[in-house]
Amino acid sequence: MVIVGDDPASRVYVNNKKKACGELGIYSEEYALPAETTEAELLELVERLNHKNDINGILVQLPLPKHINEETIINAISPKKDVDAFHPVNVGKIMIGNYDFVPCTPAGVMELIHESGISVEGKECVVVGRSNIVGKPQAMMLLHENGTVTICHSRTKNLAEITKKADILVAAVGKANFITADMVKEGAVIIDVGMNRLPDKKLVGDVDFTACEKLAGAITPVPGGVGPMTIAMLMKNTVKAAILQNDEKGAYV
Ligand code: L34
């Protein structure tokens, strides 16, 4: 795990990831670099980790400081060690539907859906948000399970009209209380990917939980919903990376 700078939210997430590794018996190293770290220095570290034999997975926590180009860094991570599934090679595989690494947050959402006994097939699925980390891969994963998928974003007209049709609604916007009860169909499955810190330090998602809970068929809370699932999926990818890399060396047959 590589963390650059001192964003308090990133600190919490990385600590949670470290803790999960410890609980599962996965060896982990943390590289906490100062905010002034240059892109060249970070690239050098990534390159070193690419070649480090006792490391099977590399995760560079986002966001990075503004002077570092995130795409440049992601492109430098070996696709075989890319446990976030952010490298273009892995993103491409997700698009095709034949992939080694699941994108952690969208996969966590899918796991919640499956574990709740909900089928995606033929459902109206609406994803609000089109980020490379969540919105886009989320839409793909719902599509692979035969959902009818709509992606909404900041330029979408008549947003509420579209979200109101959703059987499965995934909110990944980054704005507290963005999804209100009047935007939701009765009985809908509402999955809240948002992670917003209010001025009073309270952590909330993108969904007005109290109001939407009354309507929803199923709903995820924040905290204690998608966040911990993201970490669980990261652990899954890390184990997979280790198995694949050991396979290559002929250790597993
Ligand atoms: N490279 N950067 C990279 N990979 C990722 O997968 C992430 N993400 C997102 C931000 N940047 C990243 C995460 O890890 C978001 N994210 C993440 C991970 C864990 C939690 C939240 C976001 C989490 O543990 N949430 C807890 C509460 C945490 C708190 O108290 O602040 C929860 O219960 O939702």
Provide structural commentary.
This protein is of the alpha/beta class and 253 residues long. Helix content is 40%, strand content 12%. It contains 9 helices and 9 strands. It has helices at residues 8-24, 39-50, 70-76, 88-96, 104-115, 135-144, 159-163, 209-213, 226-249; strands at residues 2-4, 31-33, 124-128, 148-152, 168-171, 189-192, 196-197, 203-204, 218-219. The chain has a 5-stranded parallel sheet. The longest helix has 24 residues, at 226-249. The two termini are 29 Å apart. The mean pLDDT is 97.
Mean pLDDT: 97
Q: Rg, please?
A: 19 Å
Number of strands: 9
Strand order of the largest sheet: 4-3-5-6-9
Sheet/helix structural class: alpha/beta
Alpha-carbon distance between the termini? 29 Å
Low-confidence stretches: none
Bound molecules: ligand L34
- Name the helix and strand elements from N-terminus to C-terminus, one letter apiece: EHEHHHHEHEHEEEEHEH
Shape designation: globular
Strand count, sense and barrel status of the largest sheet are: 5 strands, parallel
State the share of residues found in helices, binned by percent.
25-40%
How many helix segments? 9
Beta-strand percent range: 5-15%
Question: Brief description of this entry?
Answer:
By secondary structure, the protein is an alpha/beta fold. 40% of the residues lie in helices and 12% in strands. Helix 5 (104-115) crosses helix 6.
Helix and strand topology:
Blueprint: E1 2-4, H1 8-24, E2 31-33, H2 39-50, H3 70-76, H4 88-96, H5 104-115, E3 124-128, H6 135-144, E4 148-152, H7 159-163, E5 168-171, E6 189-192, E7 196-197, E8 203-204, H8 209-213, E9 218-219, H9 226-249
Parallel strand pairs: 1-2, 3-4, 3-5, 5-6, 6-9
Antiparallel strand pairs: 7-8
Helix pairs in contact: 1-9, 5-6, 5-9
Bound molecules: ligand L34.
